[in-house]
Specification:
The protein has about 350 residues and is an alpha/beta fold. About 40% of the residues lie in helices and about 15% in strands. The radius of gyration is 20 Å and the shape is globular. It starts with a strand and ends with a helix.
Length: about 350
């Protein structure tokens, strides 16, 4: 079965084999060597200076990393502006509500890009310490302009926290912008690892100011202990094996730019092939991520009908979310997916929409 959903991905054989390595005790040097390599290689994805940035592993899904980032890096007296144009932006808002973090939602039409001038005006009117944005909002496949928001934040002295769960490793992230304090990511999306381990890459200066709202997801403690070759809890050891091997494979294949090119070629192959069959993209390609794109369901064809027909042929696609469930479906090109796989997928679409 080929997974074309937004994570977890279809694994390469190289990563799958890595899961069969020896069992490790998480208090032994062999595990800390593995942890150190994962953290070092995560910084290497965007060639980050380890004196400025630190990668912290978390045994959790990507949402756990986002929660840790938000709960730990918004100050006790801080206030967060959440720029929200999809399900995952709404999830950040829910995290703030859960922890009693002062926040405000900046919402708009999910099918449109945020109005950055309006965002800037709201930051000027309010008293915000931080802003948060989902870089790749997989609800619609939109790639939000993280650099535009970073510039808005930088000129106002506002820290930026970015959910890069579905973009890290494939899309460009401007770590040089002084406003960007941290990004959250996960192993089992663009890096092609397995579920179970996520991470936050944060400026060391931001980690030094971290607060302690949460116990298990306390980012400051996790970061400090990992720096000391320790861990407070039992980590997902075999998921760490998978992450390290996926990062090695990522580097061997040419890194972030190569992965972006690969995804872009596959995504365009899907888009053009579906367009030939009368299936429209939900938002224009230049506004979409190369990682995942959303498409409009053909008339007289429900998502369940389309999903089941494709699954019978060996493909798993993904439904729209929230109020878009009945109108959209989504296709991701992450993981061990080839151009030949996409050709077969398009042939299956041709039979399904006849």
């Amino acid at each position: 079965m080929l997974l074309l959903n937004p994570g977890p991905v279809t694994l390469t054989e190289r990563v799958r084999r890595s899961l069969m390595q020896p069992d490790l005790c998480h208090r032994e040097s062999e595990f800390f060597d593995l942890q150190d390599e994962a953290r070092q290689r995560l910084l290497g994805v965007y060639a980050l200076d380890s004196d400025v940035w630190s990668a912290t592993l978390i045994t959790a899904s990507g949402t756990g990393a986002v929660e840790s980032m938000i709960a730990s890096l918004v100050p006790t007296e801080g206030r967060l502006l959440v720029i929200e144009n999809g399900v995952y932006g709404d999830r950040i808002t829910q995290i703030c509500a859960q922890y009693g973090i002062a926040h405000e939602r900046f919402t708009g039409d999910w099918m449109r890009a945020p109005d950055w001038e309006a965002v800037a005006a709201r930051l000027d009117q309010g008293s915000f310490s931080h802003a948060a944005l989902v870089h790749h909002e997989t609800t619609t496949g939109r790639l939000n302009d993280l650099s535009a928001l970073a510039d808005v934040c930088r000129t106002r002295g506002v820290g930026l926290l970015a959910d890069c769960v579905s973009s890290f490793g494939a899309e460009d992230i401007d770590f040089a912008n002084a406003s960007l304090e941290a990004v959250a990511g996960t192993a089992n999306k663009c890096l092609h690892g397995v579920p179970g381990v996520s991470f936050v890459i944060a400026r060391r200066a931001a980690l030094a100011r971290a607060v302690r709202r949460t116990y298990y997801l306390d980012l400051g403690r996790l970061a400090r202990l990992q720096e000391e070759r320790g861990t407070p809890f039992t980590p997902a050891i075999h998921a760490c094996y998978g992450l390290v091997e996926a990062l090695r494979e990522f580097a061997d294949e040419g890194g972030q730019l190569a992965r972006h090119r690969r995804y872009a070629a596959l995504a365009e192959r899907v888009r053009s092939g579906l367009a030939e069959r009368g299936i429209e993209a939900a938002i224009p390609a230049p506004e979409s991520s190369v990682v995942l794109r959303a498409y409009r369901l053909p008339l007289l064809l429900t998502y369940t009908m389309l999903h089941d027909a494709l699954k019978a042929e060996g493909f798993v696609i993904y439904a729209g979310q929230s109020h878009l469930t009945s109108t959209l479906f989504r296709i991701s090109t992450m993981g061990d997916v080839s151009s030949g796989d996409i050709d077969r997928l398009l042939q299956c679409f041709a039979r399904s929409v006849e």
